[in-house]
Amino acid sequence: MIRKGKAAVFVGPARPMEIREYPVVSPDDAGVLMQLVHSGICGTDIHILEGSLPIPPQFIPGHEFIGRVIETGPNARTDAASW
Fold it and tell me: Residues with catalytic annotation?
């Protein structure tokens, strides 16, 4: 069975975000698959939605989040310091 996940997609300034479904793939190499637990909105996200930043549509914003690691690639490390 193909796993699927949802994402809020920026489709253009002053337009509502669209919720779309995408296939979820297993991480490769040092990648990590995370399940989103909580997400924040930062000022940059607001500027993108208002059209103040030249971001093309079909962009999935977000860089402030808390997640749960559910799968790791074969070369994934415990953290950025290799602990």
Answer: 44, 47
Distances (CA, A) of 9 to 48, 52, 80: 12, 17, 28
Which residues pair with residue 4 across a beta bridge? 23
Q: CB of 71 within 8 A of CB of 42?
A: no
pTM above 0.70, yes or no: yes
* 46 φ/ψ angles, rounded to the nearest 5 degrees: -65, -45
Using DSSP, state whether 43 is helix, strand or coil: helix
Unique residue bearing structure tokens 């310091």: 81
pLDDT tens string 26-80: 999 989 999 999 999 899 999 999 999 999 999 999 889 999 999 999 998 877 6
Look-up of token digits 């000022």 = 43
